[in-house]
Amino acid sequence: MMSLGSLIAKARKDAGLSLEALASKTNIRVTVLREIEGDNFKNCGGETYARGHVRNIAAVLKADPQEFIRVYEEEQGEEVRTMQQLLVENSVMREPREERRVSWKILVMISVISLMVVGIAQVVISNTNTGNVVIAAPTNSATPSAWLTPSAQPSDQNSFSSGKGVEVRVNAVRAKSWLFVSDAVGRTLFSGQVSLGTEKVFTADSQINLKVGNAGGVDLAVNGKKVAAIGANGAVVSVSYGVDS
Q1: What is the pLDDT of residue 97?
Q2: What InterPro entries does this protein's entry cite (predicted)?
């Protein structure tokens, strides 16, 4: 009985193909094909790849791949194979490919880009925190005025100042309200919510601008004098007060 290598060599010659031509059609190196025809399968890359080469060669030479595999099994001996190998041999799975390695250049590029993103994020956060959102520092000048109700006691952070020419007190006596306060040059003294029963005191050199989100919920006092209601409940009102207000 002819060996598998002899069968392959005979089938190749009957097909009129040289080793080089068979290598071109099967993508198997000439040296490996020559060893296979000599019944040497050590350089095929293992049992799974050896069987794959045998099937590939049989298909190109129009031979019976099952017969080639049968002879291979008889000559090389059966070994315990993994489920993955059996699936590959029966064309259920593809042969495992060599794991791709990431180029060091790509890794360096990813690292540089990551550092740039982190740096930009830090700059943005820094600019946000150090911008003109709250320029004025809290002062200790806040004291309850005569028009405060008993529940409207000032909090520890209820006074903001960028000067001393004009003073405005905002007292949320009836409902909470959103409030935005700035001075004459556009510096933001406060932006946020004034809780029910809370008083905020603002001072500036020449002018204080307020935008009140619930005008009917708050009372105002300017330069020590209570002013008339600036709007109804739920009304958004903008007002400005100066040194002579």
Answers
A1: 54
A2: Bact_Cytoskel_RodZ, Cro/C1-type_HTH, Lambda_DNA-bd_dom_sf, RodZ-like_C
Q: Which pLDDT score, from 0 to 100, does residue 222 have?
A: 96
Record the tokens describing residue 229, joined without a space: 């209601």
How distant, in Å, are the alpha carbons of 114, 203, 221, 239 from that of 229? 54, 20, 10, 11
| Lookup result for tokens 């190196």 | 29
Q: Identify the residue whose tokens are 């005569």.
A: 146
What are 155's two structure tokens?
């909090």
d(CA 151, CA 166): 26
Q: Residues of the chain with pLDDT > 90: what percent?
A: 60
- What are the tokens at 29? 């190196």
Q: How far is CA 220 from the centre of its chain?
A: 47
Is the distance from CB of 36 to CB of 26 less than 8 angstroms?
Answer: no
The DSSP line for 47-64 is: HHHHHHHHHHHHHHTT--
Question: What residues form DSSP beta bridges with 201?
Answer: 159, 169
Q: What residue ranges define each of the domains in the chain, with the CATH number in brackets? A: 4-89 (1.10.260.40), 137-242 (no CATH)
Helix ranges restricted to H, the chain: 4-14, 19-26, 30-37, 47-60, 65-76, 83-89, 104-130
DSSP secondary-structure letter at 193? E
The mean pLDDT value for 213-242 works out to: 94
Q: Tokens 């005191």 identify what position?
A: 201
